[in-house]
Amino acid sequence: MPKIPCKVLVVDDEEDILLAGKLLLKQYFEVVVTTSDPYRIPTLLQENAIDVVLLDMNYSTGATSSREGFHWLKQILQLSPNTTVILMTAYGDIELAVRALKEGATDFVLKPWQNEKLMAILKSACQNKASAGKRSAEVAERENTAYHYDGFIGVSPAMQRVYQTIDKVAATDANVLILGENGTGKEVAARALHQKSKRAKNVFEPVDLGAISTTLFESELFGHAKGAYTDAKEERAGRLEAASGGTLFLDEIGNLTLALQAKLLTVLQSRQVIRLGTNKPRPIDIRLVCATNMPLYEMVREGSFRQDLLYRINTVEIHLPPLRERREDIKLLAEHFLQVYRQKYDRPNLHLNAETLRRLNSYHWPGNIRELDHAMERAIILCDGNELHPDDFYFAPGENGQQQRFSPESIDGNEYTLEALEKMMVQKALVKHAGNITHAAKELGITRTALYRRIEKHGL
What we know:
Layout: E1 4-11, H1 15-25, E2 29-35, H2 41-48, E3 52-56, H3 67-79, E4 84-89, H4 94-102, E5 107-110, H5 115-131, H6 137-143, E6 148-149, E7 152-153, H7 157-170, E8 176-179, H8 186-195, E9 204-208, H9 217-222, E10 223-224, E11 236-237, H10 239-242, E12 247-251, H11 258-270, E13 272-274, E14 281-283, E15 287-292, H12 296-302, H13 307-313, E16 316-319, H14 330-344, E17 351-352, H15 354-362, H16 368-382, E18 387-388, H17 418-432, H18 437-444, H19 448-458
Parallel strand pairs: 1-2, 1-3, 3-4, 4-5, 8-15, 8-16, 9-12, 12-15, 17-18
Antiparallel strand pairs: 6-7, 10-11, 13-14
Helix pairs in contact: 7-8, 14-16, 17-18, 18-19
């Protein structure tokens, strides 16, 4: 049975709900994406062109007010007005349902859902979007400008080489290693490889290895049987099994310990996984894409990364250039983000003057595209009038000697809050360590996962 050409995002804090939803929905829909972290919603909406979001109403432990659900409903409709949102909760009532519909939701589902009812609602939502005249892929391709390439924006020779490599390798099942600094778009490249591959209609499974603790690594990647350890209350497939038939993207692979590298290498060589608590091998069929900002070849020489694992994952390497090495693209990127945030914050008359563009082009951008994105958003929020000036931007001290404007002394009295100070400290740590999440988190005294949450929270 052909799958419905619809992209569905399921957002829920319960992993069991996400797994059950994915197993059910991937039988009927072309793309099913899941996340337990609502702060990833903006990124997932942008990267996957989501058609329908199935959104949980509560995320904090013990929460029943559905306040979080309404917050994210509003955010989704602001970021992607054409996306259909269906809310779900275990604490539903008529008043809540009516309010959800008034605030823009298309429908309302109670948990635990009935499979037939859920499928009927989702199919109807997808059909309604199609009949509303959503652009076809062919039309989108014709209208796309010459400097857009599957999530990338750029015309520089360095990016043209990246595009050419992706085009050549995408149709194969060759393992790909993507190298580049933080903020250069490694996951964007991985998704482009997937979308251009023969596996495009199957799952793209991203795994941030830096965010998985050593103790949970095997359970998370390989799965486990019921009772395999104290909290293993039921059998669960790992991320490798979930990615079978599609693409597995292992981000931050340079963060793995040697012991975990050995376990991963065994699975990649045998193309089989054995869930914790069992002895039954399960075959997997994955296309492997890895990424890191760490110097793997130096790590091999130092003995902190296995040479045989490096050979296994780098059949083809793609090097993403830092923004300072593709300055021809800075104006294009700045104008793209300007357009995005003009619409988001209802500032249609804002524009960049020539001096601002010159300043943006001469800055060294240690945080790369992610830093430029944040800088544009912050400037648009804080600027007066309809013209963006250099003084509206935060520039970290560095190669060109520019001074940092964001400091405790420069925070306005009305902004002198714990929230503003937290944002400032996260910014300073990221700039100091050139966007390296591991080093920034260590300096701040928090985990990588906690830092990622704060980056999403503050839009950095």
